[in-house]
Amino acid sequence: MTQPRFHVNFTIDCEATQGYIDDPARGLRGARGYRDVLERYGQKLQRLDIVSTKELSSCEPWTIAKVAGMVENYQEKLFRSSGSKAAFFSIEDLNGRIQAKVRGDKIEECVALLRSGTPVIVTGKVSFPQTEEEDGEVEPTLLVDSVEPLGTAVQRVTRTINVRVSGELASTDIWKRLRDVIEEHPGSCELEVLLSLDSGVEVSLGLDAAKVSPDELLLGALERIVGNHCVELR
Known about the structure:
The protein is of the alpha/beta class. Helices cover 24% and strands 37% of the residues. It has helices at residues 14-17, 34-40, 42-47, 107-114, 150-156, 172-184, 216-226, and strands at residues 5-9, 64-78, 85-93, 96-103, 120-127, 141-149, 160-166, 186-196, 202-212, 231-233. A five-stranded mixed sheet has the order 1-9-8-7-10. Strands 2-3-4-6-5 form a five-stranded mixed barrel. Helix 6 links the parallel strand 7 (160-166) and strand 8 (186-196). Helix 6 runs antiparallel to helix 7.
């Protein structure tokens, strides 16, 4: 059965909103790990044509692919015989990890992001290096062309942020904190607050005057207020 839903124009007036529910705030949470970030961006990753590390082994050689995840074990190597340099790292997503290689002429433009400790999108060509084991399965390597912060890419395809507040969580303190976070992150993305009442009715509180920047700082702040899986990117 479809949940009843109503829409009202809404300004965060903390005292007036107190009339909805008067329960203490609870269920706050801490910072998210990168796996949680990838799960939250799941639908957006599809729109960005992201391929999982598990799928790369079935790609044709030299296919251009995008992988989103966390960079691990970054290191640079100087080849004495040729004097050239290359960087190597692994990128891990929700399904596994693959090896990646950066040519010497691209290290300078990529190194800051690769060492930033934040989730990134790595675009490159899929290669299958030869090994001495003839019968062994050849693992793919991504030859890096570019690196981009995952959050920046997600912002480009996000139009609306839905924030769900349960009736049992709603309180004057929650509305005050939401108001402060919204005011601290102005931008061009619309934001809608959905209040779920105990009766099963969902009230859409459209913030017509409030637009925010859908970056990681905002999303993390909202989730610390309303809880895990209560912020949805549309």
